[in-house]
Amino acid sequence: ETVLTVLHAGGIFGGGGYKVSGGLHGVGVSVVNALSEWLEVTVFRDKKEYSQRFERGTPATELTSKPIKEARTGTSVSFLPDTSIFTTGIEFDCDTIASRLRELAYLNAGVKITLTDNRLELLNREAPRVETYCYEGGIREYIAYMNNDKQPLHEDIIYTCGERSNVQIEVALQWCTDAYSDTVLGFANNIRTIDGGTHLEGLKTVLTRTLNAIARKRNKLKEGDANLGGENIREGLTAVT
């Protein structure tokens, strides 16, 4: 109840979850609850099923629990946006949701995500739309997906991962010969960092420094030659970090 009704009651404030997870500020689900006509949450834990219903952000029932036979775990959240607030309609764009779920599956190698759209009348079909996303190759498969219609300079996608100062990082890279700009995507805890960040700037810096060093070591750049610019090195590059 606290998580769903009180702002800033998220996991960022303890437990170490923020090391790998995003969206822990305790704002998102509280706001969804407040903007919903109703919201129902069910938690399966310790062979019990816990459930509670909220209406327009306030508890409509007490938290209830009942025993279950199987050792099931997980959380289910169902909600209906409030049409008195969203007066122009509450229709969700399935393609937008699918794009985000696919992205999350690429960023979390081996995690299986299933999207089901049961709006048969809207879809004008007899069966629900069901899509499953699971990529054992993680961001390497993400690079392959983005470069599907391009001509790669090297078939093998460059990949590295590591940890320093309690921070985990992974990077995948591939250059293409038929692209004249770069596509470098940065994420922090599964959240796209569209405004950049030290992880993106660090990647660009190390690429420029390393490739210039290799070029000089192999005499591709002579002693009096200027270094290659970062934008020239990244031409045709697709990268995810």
Automatic annotation (TrEMBL):
Classification via Pfam families: DNA_gyraseB
Top-level enzyme category: isomerase
Top-level lineage group: Bacteria
EC nos: 5.6.2.2
UniProt-listed GO biological process terms: DNA topological change
Swiss-Prot/TrEMBL keywords: ATP-binding, DNA-binding, Isomerase, Nucleotide-binding, Topoisomerase
Catalytic activity entry: ATP-dependent breakage, passage and rejoining of double-stranded DNA
Domain DNA topoisomerase type IIA subunit B: residue ranges: 138-240
A molecular function GO annotation: ATP binding
InterPro entries: HATPase_C_sf, Ribosomal_Su5_D2-typ_SF, Ribsml_uS5_D2-typ_fold_subgr, Topo_IIA, Topo_IIA_B, Topo_IIA_bsu_dom2
Record-stated family: Belongs to the type II topoisomerase GyrB family.
The protein's name: DNA topoisomerase (ATP-hydrolyzing)
Species this protein is from: Planktothrix paucivesiculata PCC 8954
